[in-house]
From TrEMBL:
<feature type="transmembrane region" description="Helical">
    <location>
        <begin position="30"/>
        <end position="46"/>
    </location>
</feature>
<dbReference type="GO" id="GO:0015128">
    <property type="term" value="F:gluconate transmembrane transporter activity"/>
</dbReference>
<dbReference type="Pfam" id="PF02447">
    <property type="entry name" value="GntP_permease"/>
</dbReference>
<keyword id="KW-0813">Transport</keyword>
<keyword id="KW-1003">Cell membrane</keyword>
<feature type="transmembrane region" description="Helical">
    <location>
        <begin position="336"/>
        <end position="365"/>
    </location>
</feature>
<feature type="transmembrane region" description="Helical">
    <location>
        <begin position="298"/>
        <end position="316"/>
    </location>
</feature>
<feature type="transmembrane region" description="Helical">
    <location>
        <begin position="377"/>
        <end position="400"/>
    </location>
</feature>
<dbReference type="InterPro" id="IPR003474">
    <property type="entry name" value="Glcn_transporter"/>
</dbReference>
<keyword id="KW-0812">Transmembrane</keyword>
<feature type="transmembrane region" description="Helical">
    <location>
        <begin position="257"/>
        <end position="277"/>
    </location>
</feature>
<feature type="transmembrane region" description="Helical">
    <location>
        <begin position="58"/>
        <end position="76"/>
    </location>
</feature>
<dbReference type="GO" id="GO:0005886">
    <property type="term" value="C:plasma membrane"/>
</dbReference>
<feature type="transmembrane region" description="Helical">
    <location>
        <begin position="412"/>
        <end position="436"/>
    </location>
</feature>
<protein>
    <submittedName>
        <fullName>Gnt-I system high-affinity gluconate transporter</fullName>
    </submittedName>
</protein>
<feature type="transmembrane region" description="Helical">
    <location>
        <begin position="96"/>
        <end position="129"/>
    </location>
</feature>
<feature type="transmembrane region" description="Helical">
    <location>
        <begin position="136"/>
        <end position="154"/>
    </location>
</feature>
Amino acid sequence: MTLLIIFLCIVALILLITWGKVNPFLAFLVVSIVTGLLLGIPLNDIPQSVNKGIGDMLGSLVVVIVLGAMLGKLVADSGAAQRIASVLMKIFGVKYIQWALMLTGFIIGIPLFYNVGFVLIVPLIFSVAYQYKLPAVYIGLPMLASLSVTHGFLPPHPSPAALVVQFNANMGLTLIYGVIVAIPAVIIAGPVFSRSLKKIEAKPLESFRAAPMPEDQLPGTLNSLLSSLLPVLLLIVTTLLLFLLPGDGPLKTFLTFIGEPTIVMLITIIIATFSLGRRMGMSMQRIMGIYAEAVKDVAMVLLIVSGAGILKQVFVDSGVSTQIATALQGWNIPPLVLAWLIAAVIRLALGSATVAGLTTAGIIAPVTAQLHVDPSLMVLSIGAGSLFFSHVNDAGFWLFKEYFNVSLKDTFRSWSLMETIVSVVGLLGVLILHLFV
């Protein structure tokens, strides 16, 4: 009966968001309260579950998401992303233009949130397509594959970062594993797959061609790269040093402090304020205005994340985690595959990768210890599942269709299949890593 209630809870959540067009946060809130009542949580205790779910989820995450959004918008508005793209184009040339765009999308995608990154890089794709007279979908899909992978696999993006928190995974280690899994996924879904898309007719609208900033107003190459990638560099370096240094001591304590995601993002935003802001002639008032706009962009993401936290807390407080564990242990499906499958099904129904990932985590996280699976790999498995087959209920599907001005059929052939390849190859990469870690 308990598992049936959980199933009906998820179905209700899906129907409220897709059919009822209810805001995801409100849907999470309503469904969580009703589920708590059905699972036997006392009426007076449900508000405590709601508050604890929001607090536990956002307490360690809100700073990472907000500061990450600020960095991403500053990278875009300062011209750092444009500089990175132009340098890579010069290095790779026309012959390897797809690989240049793929690498650009990966680098830009790490600090940028998905919607910001999409709007930023699509004009770059169109500029290259117009300049070299190449099919827009053919050269653009590798770049978008990179952006999708960073969004689904790599912290500090909202869903992977939230999954790290829920599974008590190490964010630096998850980032390292994520990059290892992401590389083959991007290559196969990008340059390899897009060879079959050369004949797709795309007529990008002129209004989507962004006017580039003058060359002399762009930040330098080294400045652009270091400022954009500083969170990644700090996380990777501190994680590796903590593994290599023997014993305990002041240095290890300091590195542990520096390696905390909140501190990493704070250090980065302080440095970027001067390296990409003040150094490029921006006033503090303008920089703070950029940061304020960035927070508005992620406000709903924060609410959705907190809603998923409520649902997870209801599952925990109702004591159903033991029953879920028993049920899962009876399935002859490896835990990593099961987590991927649940996320993929919810993604198909809801469209949102973030909601799919967080909802799956709410079900799996309470029983992870009994499944004997590396939490970082569980984060990546769910992240891969949450990208599966984007279609008409996903905003990214329509962004691609409208920006590239292609038919629904061609959007399914290109965008939807690309997302599916990323998801499946990501799962295979996680399973291979599982053999060694």
